[in-house]
Amino acid sequence: MTAPSPTPMIRRPVFWVVIVAVFLAVAVALAVGIAMSGTPGGADAASTRIPRPTPSGTAAPTPLPTATTASGPVVPADCSGIYTKDWSPEMHGLVLNPPWTLDPESGVRFGSKDAELVGVLETTAKVTCVWANPRGGSDAGGLTTNIASVSPEQSSAVIAHMKEIGYNCYDELGGTRCVVETPGDNGTVGESHFIREGIWSATWWLNTSPDGYTHDIVTAIFGA
Question: What ranges does the record give for the region Disordered, renumbered to this chain (predicted)?
Answer without folding.
Answer: 39-72
